[in-house]
Write the structure tokens for this entry.
Amino acid sequence: MRFQVVSDPRARSAACRGLTRAAARGRTATVSVLAAVACGLVMTACGSQNSASSPSAASTSACVTSQLKISIINTSALAGQAGGYLKFTNNSHTLCRMSGWPVVIGLTATGGTTRLRHLQSTMFGAWHYAAPPPVLTLRPGDSAYAVVAADAHPAGGNTRCPAPYVRLRVSPPADSGNVTISAWLPGAASYLPACTSANGSPTAGTSTITALSSLPH
């Protein structure tokens, strides 16, 4: 008797049913044993397929500060703005997910603090908000990004910008932990500007978490 390995679960189930019917008609020990083995293989194969599936984003815990290495990359000045990309790298051994806006506090040299606003779009990074924000699942070593940018020139009747932010205190979305990194932007040869709009509102802000593939780099 010849056997053929069938990879399609539905085909394997049909084969199992066929052998079982044959066992019932012939009532032979050999066919009965073959039916049991075939059905066992079908169940094992189906179980293997299910166990190999990737966990969904909903079942993956949110990334917390202790799992992440946070830095700023791709810094420059462009179209009247200066900024860079906050890089969140999963430095742990487990999956985690990120979505939404990080919390970023700009710190001046004199100790002043400003919470960076949630941007809807930026010239720097050519980023535009689209609802709902993406959910990124990070494997160990993977990274997610957020644009951080500010106007680089005074607006309205202002002749100069306030003192820049020299450090950034960064928290990933959904976590109260934070790390403090330098706000120096090598590509712009300056710290992150603290320039305000014509009405006096801070212009510095961040995008939502996004993939590097969605940003110029």
The radius of gyration is 28 Å. Residues 9-51 form one domain. Confidence is low (pLDDT under 50) at residues 1-17, 22-54. The CA atoms of residues 105 and 115 lie 4 Å apart.
